[in-house]
Amino acid sequence: MLGIVAAIVLFIAFLINAADLSTNDVFTSTNVMLIGLTLLALHVSGVGGGWATRGRRR
Fold it and tell me: Which of 2, 15, 17, 38 pairs as cysteine with 43 (C-beta 3.0–4.6 A)?
């Protein structure tokens, strides 16, 4: 799930950068890109992966 959110955030950062939109200091394309990369790193590390598969109980 975090991978999809990261892809969306990185796409928004790309649109801000490509369209040369003037945003306030919080939502610059670099800051949005760093948030997306953080979400991607969390996804790769296993956070937000959904249900964990466990072995069968006997």
Answer: 2
